[in-house]
Design a protein that fits this description.
alpha+beta; 16% helix; 8-stranded antiparallel beta sheet
Length: 308
């Protein structure tokens, strides 16, 4: 299932000449789109985020079409039967949830994190989506997990409204020590099958936008998420409380950031996890202490009495 060599573009930071930057700036100014997000698609005009830098140095881009899957950079959260529900297909990475008791969701995650400012674009297609029952959550979601506070995440989702055929857009920050910051859902006014998510961070502020097929991006959420590294990007199919099945496919994903660290929780990144060397040193200290205690017991009074 691994992708052919060259299909995955994981580009590390590189230096850009000042002359090139000035020329690019002049060109963009002439087009009146200075500073807009850099990932575009013909059917989805760029969201109006006039802050994302155009020279983010690290990039990952993958097209799931043609039966491709990138086992080197992506992993499936789940085991056994769950993993078998995700299959590469000609038109994208297909996720087919069968009829029966619904679970929480099925996720595809990157094996690398994101550092600094970033921009993420992910596109999808809903293939089969029966009307959910009241209280059920059925749809697709993209989320980023903080490396500093494991429970905190920023997410953007599109879910079917149980009251009708239209979809709703949800976005916000949740799971940290502070109360969740979630905007009221945005009604799409559409039952379109295809769409695209756009997530960006500039400094501590995240901007979440979503677009339905044939429509412009609309803002779903804007808020302070801090500047800590992010553990991974999660692309999730949600089917909580759904028993009628659900089928969708991920089309492509593009990630641009200041860095794409393979160990986003390393020392100095703001992670609350202890460094590896400290864990090893602690274990060694415990073993030495146990060995010393055993030796001391061997030369204690009870042992001398036995020898007498």
């Amino acid at each position: 299932m691994d992708s052919p060599r060259g299909q995955t573009a994981l580009r590390r930071p590189r230096r850009v000449s000042s002359v090139g930057c000035r020329m690019a700036g002049v060109l963009l100014s002439g087009l009146a789109i200075v500073g807009r997000a850099g990932v575009a698609h013909a059917d989805f005009p760029l969201p109006d985020v006039p802050l994302v830098r155009s020279n983010l140095g690290a990039e990952y881009r993958f097209d799931f079409g043609g039966g491709r899957y990138d086992q080197r950079s992506l992993r499936i959260e789940g085991s056994g039967v769950q993993v078998s529900l995700i299959k590469p297909g000609r038109d994208g990475l297909r996720v087919a949830i069968p009829r029966g008791p619904g679970g929480k969701g099925l996720s595809l995650c990157t094996k690398f994190g994101l550092g600094g400012d970033f921009e993420v674009m992910a596109s999808y297609e809903v293939i089969r989506a029966p009307q959910p029952k009241p209280g059920a959550r059925v749809g697709v979601e993209v989320a980023l997990q903080s490396a500093a506070r494991w429970e905190e995440r920023v997410y953007l989702s599109r879910e079917l409204d149980p009251r009708g055929g239209e979809a709703q857009l949800w976005g916000g920050i949740e799971g940290g020590e502070d109360p969740p910051r979630i905007e009221p859902p945005v009604a799409t006014g559409s039952a379109a099958r295809r769409g695209r998510f756009h997530l960006a961070r500039v400094g501590p502020i995240v901007y979440l936008h979503a677009a339905e097929e044939g429509k412009a991006f609309r803002k779903v959420f804007e808020g302070n998420f801090g500047t800590s590294n992010l553990m991974f990007l999660r692309m999730q199919t949600r089917y909580e409380g759904a028993d009628q099945g659900f089928e969708m496919s991920w089309k492509e994903v593009t990630i641009r950031a200041e860095s794409l660290p393979t160990d986003p929780g390393r020392p100095g990144s703001g992670s609350s996890r202890p460094p590896t060397w400290l864990i090893v040193a602690g274990c060694a200290g415990i073993l030495i202490a146990i060995a010393g205690w055993s030796i001391a017991r061997g030369h204690g009074p009870a042992n001398r009495h036995h020898k007498a």
